[in-house]
Amino acid sequence: MKKALAVLLALAMVFCFAACGKKDEGKQEETYEIAFVTDVGQLMDGSFNQGTWEGVSEYAEANGKTYKYYQPANGSEATDDDRYAAMRAAVDNGAKIVVCAGYLQDAALEKIAAEATDVAFVFIDGWPTGLSNIAGIAFKEEQCGYLAGYAVVKEGYTKLGFSGGGGGDNAACCRYGYGFVQGANAAAAELGKTVDVNYTWQYGATFSPSTELKTMMDGWYSNGTEIVFACGGKISDSIFQAAEENGGKGVGVDVDQSSQYPGVVITSALKGLNSATQWALQKFYDGKFSEIANVPISLGAAEGSVGLPTATWMLSNWSVAEYEALLGRIVDGSLAIDNTQYAGEAIKDVTFSNVNLNYQ
Predict the structure, then answer these.
(1) What average pLDDT does the structure give for the chain?
(2) 341 and 254 in one domain?
(3) Are residues 109 and 211 in the same domain?
(4) Where are the alpha helices (DSSP H) in the chain?
(5) What string of DSSP letters covers 7-56?
(6) Do residues 166 and 189 both lie within one domain?
(7) Burial of residue 169, with CB atoms counted within 10 A of its CB: 0-12 exposed, 13-18 middle, 19 or more buried
(8) Cα–Cα distance between 210 and 97 in angstroms, integer?
(9) Does residue 122 sit within a domain?
(10) 8 A C-beta contact, residue 181 and residue 355
(11) What is the pLDDT of residue 48?
(12) Distance, CA of 292 to CA of 132 (rounded, Å)
């Protein structure tokens, strides 16, 4: 009896192992054909990552595509190896097209694209790399920066500030900042005024909030600065918290940040992260990715890719009609805005007719 029971138990175990093995063999790993690899900072940063991710997710949802985001390890301290690992995971999980946000992706992106030649890559805030499966998409941030600087001076502010991310090496932030000062200078000249602009890259290298930046901004606002253009992802948290506590105002960046900081952000310098991402994805699915791969692309007012959010701005002294007229001049080319990327302290060497620039 015992011998028969042992035989039955042994047979049951064999059948169990066979059944389990068969189940595992038939199991399919879930794949995602559109991937997004984030820049430094959080996915929902209310700025650059979020704007790009919304383009990915909205396109995928509308077109029945599977999608997933990948965040490099080590947060703001991520290395090229961390970024490469995130891209490799996306490719290994079945991505047909990978959207990568931020100029820091360059080295890792070139490495993975050279290996995964059958995968398409979109390099947001990027440039041609020489590889035929990478499309680099940049923006004319100087144009929306100009519009924001012009708007706040027309609104009546004369004590301005600019705080940028990337430590003064990020090309997009450099264009934003110089455009902002150009716009402020133009509006001040028209009004016959001189405006003061505090300008800094301090404490913004990692695009993250910090107590040091908050302390600096408290000092700016308490010493008379009325409004600051926060240009660098989540550094806006430190800047706009200081604004709120000191009765100041702010200008948002990349996306409309008025709902994130109600009563503080009076306008935002917008660039079409969402629309540009969806445009590139559509090119891929239309079989026309070769049209945008490895060619210089810079989207601006003429493409409807930069501007200000007229539906939510808190401006009362400068009208939407006046804004649209100025925007039209940029579109038709009658108003040309210098797109020089004055990295770091190089902007100190620029002379402005109606701006006193205080570089810190």
Answers:
(1) 91
(2) yes
(3) no
(4) 2-26, 48-63, 80-92, 106-115, 141-155, 171-191, 211-222, 235-246, 273-285, 320-332
(5) HHHHHHHHHHHHHHHHHHHHPPPP--SEEEE--SS-TT-SSHHHHHHHHH
(6) yes
(7) middle
(8) 35
(9) yes
(10) yes
(11) 83
(12) 9
Can you give the pLDDT at residue 41?
77
Instruction: Kindly state whether residue 12 falls inside one of the protein's structural domains.
Output: no
Over the stretch 4-49, which tens digit does the pLDDT of each residue have? 444 444 444 333 333 333 333 444 568 999 999 998 878 887 788 9
Distances (CA, A) of 206 to 125, 201, 234, 289, 303: 17, 11, 9, 32, 30
Average pLDDT estimate for 66-83: 94
Nearest to 41 by CA among 7, 69, 9, 10: 69
Tokens standing for residue 114:
């050279």
Cβ-contact 150, 193 below 8 angstroms? no
Mean pLDDT of 307-336: 97
Residues 6+ apart with CB under 8 A from 311: none
The answer to whether residues 238 and 146 belong to one domain is yes
Name beta bridge partners: 228. Answer: 161, 250
The token pair that represents 110 in the structure block: 């070139």
The CATH number assigned to the domain holding 136 equals 3.40.50.2300
| Amino acid (one-letter) located at 293 | A
Q: Model-level pTM?
A: 0.86
Q: Is the pLDDT of residue 128 over 60?
A: yes
Whole-number Å distance between alpha carbons of 116 and 112: 6
Domain count, the chain: 2
Clarify whether residues 98 and 210 are in a common domain. Answer: no
Range of the domain at 131: 34-140+275-299
